[in-house]
Design brief:
Layout: E1 11-20, E2 23-30, E3 36-42, E4 49-51, E5 57-59, H1 62-72, H2 80-97, E6 100-102, H3 103-117, H4 119-129, H5 135-147
Parallel strand pairs: 4-6
Antiparallel strand pairs: 1-2, 2-3, 4-5
Helix pairs in contact: 1-2, 1-4, 2-3, 3-4, 4-5
Length: 149
């Protein structure tokens, strides 16, 4: 690993910690200048594809999942770490079940996870994902929240 301060390639790992199921945080020190810095090591997955509703295929994007969840959780009392953990759980779950993921499976997984984390975010996400057109759609989503575990 190259030192960000002096560009030396001679560094050593001082400390390692798991930050999620698929990420390791490493504290490193440069042997040459003794500068300490942090790196994140993440498992690279095989190329995974999303099958869109119209049949098109596009590369799986963890960032798209994160963006959708962050929009649903805007101004809600949920930490960045909770969001990262949630995205890791959803990504791990989907990638272990599919090599070609139907977009419906992504939306359903996000809704199931949001339901347990923040009911308001669940309704927000559902309103976009399910394309709510009326107040009745919101009432039905809230009723679904109350009647399912």
């Amino acid at each position: 690993m190259k030192c960000p301060k002096c560009s030396s390639h001679d560094t050593r790992v001082v400390d390692s910690r798991d930050t999620s199921e698929s990420t390791i945080r490493r504290r490193r020190q440069c042997i040459q200048c003794e500068h300490r810095f942090t790196t994140l090591e993440e498992v690279l997955r095989d190329e995974i594809w999303v099958i869109k509703r119209d049949g098109r295929r596009e590369k799986f994007s963890r960032e798209k999942i994160c963006s959708g969840i962050e929009k649903a959780l805007e101004k809600r009392p949920v930490s960045t770490q909770q969001v990262e953990t949630l995205v890791d759980q959803i990504t791990d779950e989907l990638c272990s079940q599919y090599t070609d993921i139907p977009c419906k499976a992504i939306g359903e997984s996000i809704m199931n996870h949001l339901k347990g984390l923040d009911p308001i975010a669940y309704v927000r996400f559902a309103s976009v994902y399910k394309d709510f057109r009326s107040v009745e759609d919101f009432v039905n989503a809230i009723h679904h929240l109350e009647t399912t575990p």
